[in-house]
Amino acid sequence: MGDEPLRVAIVGAGVIGELHADVLATLPRFQVTAVVSRTGPAADRLADRIARSGSRPDVLTDLTEAFPRCDVVAICTPNGTHGALAEQALGARKHVVIEKPIEVTLRRAMRVSRAAAAAPESACTVISQHRFDPSAVAVHDAVHSQRLGRPTSGVALLPWWRSERYYASADWRATLALDGGGALMNQGIHTLDLLLWMMGPVRSVHARQGLLAHRAIEVEDTLAATIDFQSGAIGTLLVTTAAYPQLPARLQVHGSLGSAVIEDDELVYFHSSPEDRSGERHDSGGGENTAAEERARVEDGRGTVMGASHARQYEDLARAIDTGSHPRIAVDDAVATLAVVEALYRSARWGEDVLVEDVLAGGGRRQTVDTEGRTT
Asked: Rg of the Cα trace of the chain?
């Protein structure tokens, strides 16, 4: 790692901007030099917050004014504004961090992908901080080293609650234009992203959605789906902000030789059984390794403290900048996850299976999948 300071302009002075500021305050390599926001009081409050642990950043209203003052642009604005800001920053050859999701439509996300490809000297990453959780890394490594055998199924469950006050706290929340969706796009996308990271590319999805516990919002508060992976594995997804008072997020991965369960970012169950030459599994009851042993193998001392995995992703960005390599989570990773999100929304609207390859190709209802797996 280098030792030259990386100057950061945070764009957006809301809750997510505050989180990024707090994370960056723990990383000596980074220095916040500008806050960009059209909301003056919020920007001043954020600048004062940053000043408690260092120098007070400049408060600006236009991103272009920040370019002489920064090396990295951290985009922490409403979802539907991410793409245009990222294109602007990449056009100025700045390194870019985009909060999830990359955008609210695949078409806009692809524009960001093209802008990143046109600026190869700029490192660009999209926040998927849970891919840096020690629990997620342990399970991912186990799946991809085939210690769980052949992946057979996966479960992503996010039974959360959001109040009417939450949705009314900002005029962009729960709007199609700026939020892009509800429980799936905003809350469930992290758990879905981990499921995809573990299980691999998706062939098709079938989803249903509803607005069941909230009023006067444009988007869903509940979505359930089945997912067919290209490997042949099957997944289920349930995301909701209508599960009072809220239960833990849960991710399960099952294979022919073992299973793993992550609950609220902690690895709570891990079991893998060796296989002899006859193909028979030998189950000793305790599994090959315990969940605690798997966590310890990848733990870095920070655990799942709030912001710890954001910090890990910023450190990965610094590594990419120093080495001229790609961040571990590149723009195309975020595009792939958003393509599945868009497929899920299309399926929920149309009431039929949707092929992800059709979504990526920009197509409409050209093909569906029947119960025998045939395309028509």
From this structure: 21
Helix (H) or strand (E) holding 133: none
- 241 vs 187: CA distance, rounded Å: 8
Report percent pLDDT > 90 for the chain.
85
Beta bridge pairs of residue 364: none
In whole numbers, what is the pLDDT of the chain averaged over residues? Answer: 92
Which tokens sit at 54?
Answer: 């260092």
**Per-residue pLDDT for 58 more than 50?**
yes
- Farthest-apart Cα atoms in the chain, separation: 69
Which tokens go with 340?
């599945």
Residues in the chain, how many?
Answer: 376
Q: Which pLDDT value is given to residue 364?
A: 54
Whole-angstrom distance, CA of residue 26 vs CA of residue 123: 21
Half-sphere exposure of 356 (CA within 13 A, CB side): 20
DSSP state of 369: B
Tell me the pairing of strands 266-272 and 30-36.
Answer: unpaired
DSSP of 272-333: E--B-TTS-B---SS-SS-HHHHHHHH--S-TT-TTHHHHHHHHHHHHHHHHT---SS-HHH
Mean pLDDT is lowest, of 109-118, 147-156, 305-314, for: 305-314
Residue of 83, 80, 95 whose CA lies nearest to 125? 95
At 299 the pLDDT is 75
What is the predicted pLDDT for the residue at 86?
98
Cα 115 to Cα 71: distance, rounded to the nearest angstrom: 17
Strands 124-126 and 222-229: unpaired
Query: Which tokens hold the place of 169?
Result: 């706290």
> How far apart, in whole angstroms, are the C-alpha atoms of residue 218 and residue 211?
9
Give the type of residue at 13: A
Separation of CA 226 from chain center = 20
Crossing angle for the helix pair 134-144 and 189-199, to the nearest 10 degrees: 30
The end-to-end CA distance of the chain, in Å, is: 52
How far is residue 184 from each of residues 15, 43, 64, measured CA to CA in Å?
19, 29, 33
Q: Nearest to residue 253, comparing CAs of 245, 244, 261?
A: 261
Confidence category of residue 289, pLDDT binned at 50, 70, 90: low
